[in-house]
Amino acid sequence: MTPRFAPGVRLQEDRARGRWIVMAPERMFVPDETALEVLRLVDGARDEAAIVDALAARFDAPREVIAADVRALLEDLVARGALMG
Amino acid sequence: MSLDPPLALLAELTHRCPLRCPYCSNPLALARASEELSTEEWARVFREAAALGCLQVHLSGGEPTARRDIVEITAAAHAAGLYTNLITAGVLLDAALLQRLVAAGLDHVQLSVQDATEEGAERIGGLKGAQPRKARAAALVRAAGLPLTLNAVVHRQNLHHLPELIALALDWGAARLEVAHVQYYGWALRNRAALLPTRAQLDAATRCVEAARAAHRGRLVIDYVVPDYHARRPKACMGGWGRRFLAVSPSGKVLPCHAAESLAGMEFPNIRETSLAAAWAESPAFTAFRGTGWMREPCRGCARAELDWGGCRCQAFALTGEAASTDPACALSPHHHLLAEALEAAGTEAFVWREHGAAT
Ligand code: SF4
Ligand code: SF4
After folding, report:
1. Which of A12, A17, A25 lies at the smallest CB-CB distance from B147?
2. Residue B146 is nearest to which of A7, A15, A23, comparing CB atoms?
3. Neighbours of B132 (CB within 10 A)
4. DSSP helix/strand/coil, B113
5. Atom 4 of ligand 1, nearest CA residue
6. Residue B35 DSSP label
7. Which residues of chain A are within 8 Å of residue B176 when distances are taken between CB atoms?
8. In sequence order, what DSSP letters do the residues of B158-179 get, joined into one string?
9. pLDDT tens string A37-79
10. What are the residues facing B241 on neighbouring strands?
11. A7/B83 Cβ within 8 A
12. In the prediction, which pLDDT does A27 show?
């Protein structure tokens, strides 16, 4: 899948509180560190494999482990209405 | 006590509006166009709001698109890093304007609807031909790929159309419907006898919302809160005075709540004279009812003091003449009977539209 943000949803820096947040109409949530790494790579062009590649190049972990994490995260973010696949 | 930064800014860009809703939350003394902040002044407000900790701005009014610089204003809010929500009656939106707003960074649109039928909407909003223009605005928003929230203010004269309002939200492609009961200060207080719903209307509305939520799960989210006049405990108005939100009026007054100008005698800081940060942290208007230190009996020491913060200051003032009273929506308030009496006295058809000079 090639994830992109759902309409009206975006990742936004919360400078005053030193964190990033996912802003959606009438709600917001604070992604954990792993989710934030994935969300930063969501641009509507990169597909899931490309996201896994980008993370594998940066983090010292087996590709299968990263792929499984990314899959679970993307599914969760889609279920929460933040992303569409 | 450490001071939390605000989460959202309500930017009331203008009090001008082609509609004349009898419950409009604008003050009885409407600001004139000549008093309005400039584009550059708003840009400064947005930058200061973002630096202070606001994440979101509601571009509101009056009718925000009545400002000729609404695109520049939206761009400035976006450039400041704020999530931008346009709160509009929709009658001035056309395809070209919406396209420019989207290009400027608009994130979300909240469209008001006065009734489900054309006649009802015209009677309440006071503008001929409003409903088809709103329908078109909704279609444009959807076509632009923006999420749409429909905001229906409900009261005695349109609650019987709630099922049709829900159908309209589905038909117009809204992802969210806010069913908002009128709040009684300012214009709405003036028109209270025509707007207060009966208990039977309220119970029917609650059942209707519950059924619709179940029927349209996954397609339409419905926001709905029981109105104060039929409640036994008040709402945490604005999440507490000076705790989460701030508003800036068309002429630059910094307000803890959009209705705060109804508090006669209270002086508000103006962004033409001060920074938003100073207004938030130390102005007498913001510190007056922040926290719990200002509370009297029965709020003082009450277990719910930090849950509802004593309710709404504007409602307390409107009904008791004292902003520091317990909100009469609370059954523990010695003034709670005023609500039952107002309900008892309600039941007229006639109301006045909001207009310059109509309040007197
Ligand atoms: S409540 Fe009605 S009159 Fe007031 S700003 Fe909104 S649309 Fe205009
Ligand atoms: S007494 Fe005051 S704090 Fe207690 S429930 Fe009523 S309004 Fe809230």
Report:
1. A25
2. A7
3. 11
4. strand
5. B24
6. G
7. 25-26
8. TGGGHHHHHHHHHHTT-SEEEE
9. 999 999 999 999 999 999 999 888 899 999 999 999 999 988 8
10. none
11. no
12. 82
Alpha-carbon distance B111 to B149, whole Å?
Answer: 6
CA distance A2 to A79: 15
Instruction: Using the mean position of ligand 1's atoms as its centre, give its distance from the Cα of residue B116 in Å.
Output: 16
Q: How many CA atoms lie within 13 A of B18 on its CB side?
A: 19
Q: Which residues of chain B have pLDDT under 70?
A: 1, 358-360
Cβ neighbours around B2 below 10 Å, total: 3
Cβ distance B52 to A14 less than 8 Å, yes or no, reads no
Please give the Cα distance from B187 to A65 (Å, whole number).
Answer: 60
* pTM for this entry: 0.92
Q: Give the pLDDT mean for A22-29.
A: 87
Q: Is B107 on the interface with A (CB under 8 A)?
A: yes
Q: Which of B233, B297, B302, B320 should be mutated for ligand 2, with most atoms under 8 A from CB?
A: B302
Say if B129 is an interface residue toward chain A (CB within 8 Å): no
State how far the Cα of B102 lies from the Cα of B4, in Å rounded to an integer: 32
Contacts of B165 (CB under 8 A, 6+ apart): B113, B115, B116, B150, B152, B154, B158, B177, B179
pLDDT digits (tens, 9 = 90+) for B47-88: 999 999 999 999 999 999 999 999 999 999 999 999 999 999
> Long-range contacts: B34-42, Cβ < 8 Å, 24+?
B35/B250, B35/B251, B36/B67, B36/B250, B36/B251, B37/B13, B37/B248, B37/B250, B37/B251, B37/B252, B37/B271, B37/B272, B39/B69, B39/B72, B39/B73, B39/B76, B41/B252, B41/B271, B41/B272, B42/B11, B42/B13, B42/B73, B42/B76, B42/B77
Name the token pair of A10. Answer: 């975006």
The reply to whether ipTM tops 0.90 is no
Residues 6+ apart with CB under 8 A from A43: A4
**Interatomic CA distance for residues B46 and B51, integer angstroms:** 8
Q: Residue B360: its pLDDT value, please?
A: 53
Distance CA B176, CA B109 (A): 11
Asked if B72 and B39 count as a contact pair (C-beta separation under 8 A), the reply is yes
